């Protein structure tokens, strides 16, 4: 299966368990890997035959506006659901990186979801790094 990847998209989202942590947006990095058969786009050279990664990135940059999350696990699940419903890949993997521990490079969660039929979403795997 072909994949379209957006690696380490810098977003600012209100996330954290304590209220103080959610009070202001935090820098996060999102990686989104979309499974999509873009063979017709490769032949036709038409963006309408593939997932427009620029449109996905722009959508994700605004995704957190006016919203808050306590857990990056929930944020990852919501991002995956949003990408599946708005951009229609066959599957999506999302990784969210957060920087709460100064002695660590980052903390990350990852989630993979796929479609099981028209309009249906199936949870397939969770990973925590």
- Reading the helices and strands in chain order gives EHEHHEHEEE
CATH architecture: 2-Layer Sandwich
Find the structural class using helix and strand composition.
alpha+beta
Main beta sheet strand tally, sense and closure: 6 strands, mixed
Number of contiguous helices: 4
Structural commentary:
With 129 residues, the protein is an alpha+beta fold. It has one domain: GTP Cyclohydrolase I, domain 2 (2-Layer Sandwich). 29% of the residues lie in helices and 41% in strands. It contains four helices and six strands, in the order E-H-E-H-H-E-H-E-E-E. Strands 3-1-2-4-5-6 form a six-stranded mixed β-sheet. A hairpin with an 8-residue loop joins strand 4 and strand 5. About 5% of the residues have low confidence.
Strand-helix topology:
Elements: E1 3-15, H1 19-22, E2 26-35, H2 39-44, H3 53-63, E3 68-69, H4 72-87, E4 91-98, E5 107-117, E6 120-128
Parallel strand pairs: 1-3
Antiparallel strand pairs: 1-2, 2-4, 4-5, 5-6
Keyphrases for this structure?
129 residues, GTP Cyclohydrolase I, domain 2, 6-stranded mixed β-sheet
Tell me briefly what this model is:
The protein has 129 residues and is an alpha+beta fold. The protein has one domain: GTP Cyclohydrolase I, domain 2, CATH 3.30.1130.10.
């Amino acid at each position: 299966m072909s994949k379209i990847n957006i690696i380490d998209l810098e977003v600012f989202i209100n996330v954290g368990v304590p209220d103080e942590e959610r009070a202001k947006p935090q820098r996060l990095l999102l990686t989104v890997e979309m499974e999509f058969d873009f063979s017709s786009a490769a032949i036709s050279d038409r963006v309408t035959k593939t997932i427009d990664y620029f449109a996905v990135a722009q959508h994700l940059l605004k995704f957190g506006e006016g919203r808050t999350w306590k857990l990056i696990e929930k944020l990852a699940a919501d991002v995956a659901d949003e990408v599946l419903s708005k951009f229609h890949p066959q599957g999506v993997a999302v990784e969210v990186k957060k920087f709460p521990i100064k002695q660590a490079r980052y903390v990350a969660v990852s989630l993979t979801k796929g479609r099981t039929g028209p309009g249906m979403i199936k949870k397939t795997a969770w990973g925590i790094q």
